[in-house]
Hints:
Layout: H1 2-28, H2 31-75
Amino acid sequence: xxxxxxxxxxxxxxxxxxxxxxxxxxxxxxxxxxxxxxxxxxxxxxxxxxxxxxxxxxxxxxxxxxxxxxxxxxxxxxxxxxxxxxxxxxxxxxxxxxxxxxxxxxxxxxxxx
Length: 113
């Protein structure tokens, strides 16, 4: 009698365990869950790539500054700490230029006829 009870309980436990596993797997395979997983992976990958790109840019900047210093030393050029500011160009060009002089046209369409 105890054997039957043991095996019955073992079978029920195995059935509950298997049902739980299958239900969890089915929930993972729903379209919403797959989309969320894919979105999370894409965000993680994007963040990882961004971190690497920023690190690469900083390395390039450091190496560039080091190489510039080496070249300045080799050529005997000493950079002036007070460099002139770059020229700024006006967003609107000089309107007194003949190319921009406006000609006035009549709006009367019947004037020529």
